[in-house]
Each structure stands twice: as structure tokens, then as C-alpha cells.
Amino acid sequence: MIMNNNIDWKKYLIVFLITVSLFLTASYVSNYFSNQKINQLKSIQDKIAIDILSSETQFSLLSELSCKNISDSVFSGELGELGSKLEWSQQNLGATEEVSYLQKYYSLLEIKDYLLAKKISARCGVKSAFILYFYTTAENCSECERQGIVLTTLRDKYPELRVYSFDYSIELSAVKAMLKIYKIKDTELPALVLDDELLTGFHPIDELEKKVQESFKLQETKPEVTPKKILNPQIAP
Amino acid sequence: MASISSVIFYILIFLSVYVQVFFFVTFLENRKKIVIRNGKIKLAKYPAVTIVVSCWNEEKTVYKTVRSLLNLNYPKNKLKIFLIDDGSTDNTWNILRKFEKYPNIKVFHKENGGKYTALNLGLENMKSDFFGGLDADSFADPESLIRIMSFFEKDPSIMAVAPSVTINDSKNIVQRAQKAEYHMGIYFRKMLGFLGAINVTPGPLTIFRKKVFDDLGSYRHGHNTEDMEIAYRMQKNSYKIEHCNDAYVYTNTPTTIRKLYKQRLRWIYGFVNNTIDYRSVLFKKKYGNFAFFTLPMGIISVISIPYLFGRMIYSLGDFLYSKITVLNTIGFHFTIKNFNFDTFFINMQSFAFLIVLIYFLIIFSIIFGRKMTEGKWGLSLDVIYFFPIFSIIAPFWFMKAVYNTILSKKPAWR
């Protein structure tokens, strides 16, 4: 009459082991994909590094000849993509050592790209504007978030606008040097540098758009002067 | 804070995977024992059975319910049907009286006192060794009773046999969603049957030996889930409950979300409160898998469903908040972006794989449950309705049931 209430402990254990192994498999697979992503980031960075190096070399060669050959291709188009992928990785893969290493490398590439692009633009009068953007992740900075949105929108609208974003708290001497040059303090974040002008706090899209357009005009007035300079190799530095 | 929340999250995911794997392993162990009989069977002996139909304002369905009992493939002189009107205020009583002329039907009328009181009236008047109820919104398949009785014939230690409750007619999306869920329920009940750990002996046509009530007493209120309370009581006394998967009972299901919500609130409230009443059973070895699997599993779902839902709402809120921030910051700036889908942004965190696994096992249970009831392999479209409807609404009846328990508010029947 009374039923058999024997508990099959072995089954409970086996199911436990199966569940644990499913967990391990899932985390293994997840790790595998994380590594794949990190590798993808690394390869994008390598590509950008080569792009910049190649642009630098091309520029050194061409600077002695003509600006005509300076095409859009000298600008590495993948910096933006890398930036958004890195941001996603930071949020979703966690702030691992590898991600923060990539972040540093990215900042360095940004600075190099900035310096080069600025040089090319100044010399050859390529229509462009540059914004250096400093934000923080160390604390909750909702204004930084909003500023980021504004800059992304502007960048999408004006492909000639190059935005370089830097984490204020990154441990990288090159970034620290920039902070010193532009006298940026952590109490004034987000901070922007546009045409050597420091703008602190949040700046709405209309205001920035105007400034960006002005910056474009500034560039457009130069071309007439600069080509002559460049055409004459003796004047060129 | 975030890390505590993730730890809880992963523990709940772990337990949910554990439960699903446990069911699946049980299935693999017992799959050969699942028999689906087609056609008529015969018994060596036909013991007398009393079936009680307790009605409270069931004028729309009761006629068909009684007819389905009269059509049962069981000797008429061995089947006694009690029709009990539990103080209906509609036309139910007049419909019941039409059946008075049948020699094996007895009609009762009483003051409204709740379903368990009607069932107890039936128990007081019965003279057979087997007893069962049939909710007045359900219809028994002609072969259901004889198939159930074959279990008692085969194994004298079986004390109650639950049928496969499926959906009578699924007209709209809400009912089709429930159809998939009932299929899943049949699979789970069958597996719990193998584990000796069934926790509900459903109102539609569960048949008991009279001994159950002689030994353990009559039906109790059981927080409006008397069919759950009696199963708990039987488990506490180690009375064996089986599931007869090929005995089909078709039940009418709530047609609207609101009615479904009320019904489920009652069920979950019943689960929470019966579990509290029988908490002494939890994790006691002598109560078997009921104490180590069924009840903990139910408790896990009461905790994890609202928790996971809360997390989902939080993420959704976060997402909406970021979208609103974008709108507030830049207004409607529709710069047409090249929307390139990049696999890079697919979430590959380990829980994503585990949730997919859980979904697969749930879909398997729906497919196999359907196979057991309709004899068809494959996935019906009902699943498409099931997942969204139940994942959005179920958390609410779970939360409300817990809330009502804390404030000791009793939900109504309808």
C-alpha cells in the first residue's frame, strides 16, 4: 500500500554533474567567443596601425611633391568602428586586462591619427575638423553619455569631422600629456577641444554643429595658400 | 550590488537548468514505459466507481460534461454519477434535474459552500470503492475511465490516478497559448508520476481509492485548491499517485487574459500556501522526490520567475532610458546610418547559452506532451503564442500570489 519512497541519490548527483558540465561548457564557449572578439579587436588595431604608418610614410613621400595625390584613403576609416566595439567589449566582456590594454593602444592610435590628419589637413587643405573629447568612466557621468551621443550624431552627419575620445582616467602618459597641454581637470568633464579651444561641460548639438561648420570654413580658406607651399619642395619643411 | 545580483542570477539559472535536466534524465530513463493505447481495452474486473460533478453556475457546460460521463466506456451499473449543485444562481439546477431519470445518476442540491464541500457531500453518499470528481467545465474521453481503472487493476499500491488534462477547444490566442502549456504540463506530470512526486490530482477526473478518504479524511478548503491539498496530504502519507497519460479529459480554459490571470493566481496562491502548510515535508528523506524535487522546484519557480522578469524589465527600462536620453539630447535627428549587422555585437555570455538550453528543453517537453495527447510529433504554432503570453503575464500572478500570501488575501475562484 505504501509507496516506495526511495530517493535515487545517484540521479540527483548525476543531474548535478550534468548541470555543472553544461555550465562549464557554456562558459568555455562564451570564453571562446570573447577571445575571438578580442582577437578581432586586435586585428582591427593592427590594421589601423598599418594604415597610420602607411599614411605617415605616404605623407612624407608626397609632402615633397603634391597634395593632389592625397586622397581620402589616407584616413583610417576603422577608428570609429573600433571605438564602438571597444566600448561594447568594456560593457559586456568586463574590464579585463586585455580590454584595458586594447583601450590604451586605441588611445595611442587616436593620438597618432589626430596628429597625422591634422598635418595633412593643414598642408593640403583637406576639409576637416577635429574634436578631442575627454570623458570619464570612473564615476557616473550622465553628461558624458549625452555628449557622446551628440558627437556620434555629428560624426555621422559630417564624415569630415574626426572625433577622438579619451578616457580621463586612462593610465597612459600620452593622454596625460594632452590633459596637461589643454589644462583639463576631472571636475570639468566632459571636456572638448575644438580648434585649440577648450569647452567644458555639456554642449548641445546645435552649438557644436555651428562650431564644427566654422572649423570647416577655416579649413576652406587655407587651400589657396597651402598648395603653393607644397608645390615648392624647397619651401616645404 | 551588481555582483550580488549576478550571483543570484546565476544561481537561479543553475537551478532552472538543473530542474529541466532532471526532467529530461527522468524521461530518458522511463521513455520505454510510456505507453499510448489506441482503441478499447478490457479489464478483468470492473469495480464500482462514483464520479461527482460539482457545479456552481455552470449552465453553459454542465450538460456536455454529464453527457461525456454517460458516454464513458464503462459498465453503466458500475458507474454512479452524482450531480451536485453547489447553490448555483443560474439555470444549472434545472439542467441537472433533467438527468434525474437516469438510474445511475443522483442529483443533489445544497447551499453554496465551495467546491470541496460539494465533493465531501459526494464522499458521504458514495458506496463504491473508487471515487472521482469531474469539474463541470470538463469533458471525459469515452476511454478515459477504463484506462485509469486499468492502473488500479495492475498495481494495488496505487491510491490515485490522474488523467491527462488537455484543452477542449482553443479558439483564440490566449487558449492556444494554454494548449502548448497544457501539453508541457502533461509531460511534466508524467515525469513526476515516474518520480512518485505528483503534487496535484486535478479536479477533472482524478480517480481515488476510497481508502484515501477513509484513512486521511475528506476534502479540505486547501486555499481554494482542494485538488492540490489532497495530493499533498497523500504524499505526506506516502500514498502513491500515478499519471495515466492516455486518459484524456478535455477542459474549457479561460478565454481572456484576465480570466487566465485569476485562475492562475488561485493555483499559484494554492501552491504557495499549501507548501507553507506542508513545509514540514520539505527535504525530509521519507517523503521522497516530492520533498526533494517537486516542492523545491515549485519554490524555485516562485522565486526565479519574478526575479528574472524583474531583471528583464530592468534591462528594458535601461534600454528605453538610453533611447530617451538620445532623443532628449539630439532630438529627432534622423541621420540615415548604414545599419550593418555585425556579429560582433551578439551577446555570447554564458548565461545566454544556458537560457537557450532551457528553452530547448521546454520546447522538447511541449513537443513530447503533444505527442502523448495528440499522437503527433512536431511543434504546433501554439508555442509561438505560449512564450510571449506566459513570459509577460505569468510573473504577475506569481508576484501577486506571493503578495497576497504576505497580506493573507485570498483570491476568488473567478
TrEMBL record, chain A:
Protein keywords: Membrane, Transmembrane, Transmembrane helix
Superkingdom field: Bacteria
Residue spans crossing the bilayer: 12-33
UniProt-recorded name of the protein: Thioredoxin-like fold domain-containing protein
Lineage, opening ranks: Bacteria, Candidatus Nomuraibacteriota
TrEMBL record, chain B:
Transmembrane segments: 6-28, 287-309, 344-367, 379-398
SUPFAM superfamilies xrefs: Nucleotide-diphospho-sugar transferases
Keyword Signal set for record: no
Signal keyword on record: no
UniProtKB keywords: Glycosyltransferase, Membrane, Transferase, Transmembrane, Transmembrane helix
Domain of life: Bacteria
InterPro entries for the chain: Glyco_trans_2-like, Nucleotide-diphossugar_trans
Single GO molecular function: glycosyltransferase activity
Residue ranges constituting the Glycosyltransferase 2-like domain according to the UniProt record: 50-216
Homology family: Belongs to the glycosyltransferase 2 family.
Database matches in PANTHER family: POLY-BETA-1,6-N-ACETYL-D-GLUCOSAMINE SYNTHASE (PTHR43630)
Protein known as: Glycosyltransferase 2-like domain-containing protein
